[in-house]
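Late entry, written up from scratch paper. The run itself happened at the end of the previous shift, but nothing got recorded in the book at the time, so transcribing now.
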Amino acid sequence: MAENPSSSAYWKANLRVIGISLVIWFICSFGMGIILRPALSGIMVGGADLGFWMAQNGAIYIFIILIFVYTKMMNKLDREHGVEE
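Output as recorded:
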């Protein structure tokens, strides 16, 4: 069974949005909270260094922001490909 080129383009764009979101979340949570924590120790945010703050609070805030951005981007992508609800 042949796959529709439009659905293939839709899923390719969908996976690109998911991949970018995961990379951003990984950088903010694992990268800034664990790997780069010693380098970020001199930058203070709310009484704690930036690496500690990103590990405790920042990653959660970034995740919530990514949920809203993902929703907006997927709604736009759905409209472009004619699969909106």
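Strands lie at 44-45, 48-49.
(Scratch paper discarded after transcription.)
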